[in-house]
Each structure stands twice: as structure tokens, then as C-alpha cells.
Amino acid sequence: MDKIKPSERIATRFQISRESATYFLGRVQKSFKVEKPPHRLIVEFMDAQSFEFLLTPYEIAAMLNESGAWPHELSAKPPEIVDDEDSV
Q1: In CA terms, which of 5, 59, 80, 84 is 20 to 30 Å from 39?
Q2: What angle do CA 41, 50, 65 make, to 5 degrees?
């Protein structure tokens, strides 16, 4: 059995802290209205996709939903953060 925690797998793969990985997985879960996918399902889905870089939590949730891996209702897409320096 695989005893590595899902957050540790994300942290190792994308070179981020374990705390950031745990936060990321929580944000993917919060992208769904009621039924939340387990961390293990999220990580297995991401492993199958072979992402080269870490997408936003909502993008991962949308892909889970569209693929049918977790066909539950999504929450509203969070607003995009705009950097004032880029708009000048």
C-alpha cells in the first residue's frame, strides 16, 4: 500500500511545501458545492494527467468534473486577481 500522504505527493512533485500542498488540496475540495472529493482521488487524477506545472485549484476541480471523475456540482468560479502593475 502507498503510505505517502496525498499532500506529500503534491509537495514533492511540484516542489512546494507540504502546507501549501494541503492548502491546495483543500481549495480543490472547496471548489465543489456539497460533495467534496477525497484528497487521494484528486492526486490520482493529477498523476494520470501528467501536469508539468501546478494549475489553479478551480481548474483541477473543473477537470475532475468534466472528465466524470467527480461529477458533482461546482461552486462559482473565484474571481481572478488582477495585478495593478499589469493594467498600466
Answers
A1: 80
A2: 45
Low-confidence stretches of the chain (pLDDT < 70) are 1-2, 84-88
Give the three cell numbers for residue 64.
475532475
| pTM (predicted TM-score) | 0.84
DSSP state of 74: B
* Residue closest to 50 by CA, chosen among 2, 13, 8: 13
Q: What are phi and psi of 83, to 5 degrees?
A: -85, 125
Query: Taking the CA of residue 82 as centre, how many other CA atoms within 13 Å lie in the half-sphere pointing to its CB?
Result: 5
Q: Cell for 84? A: 495593478
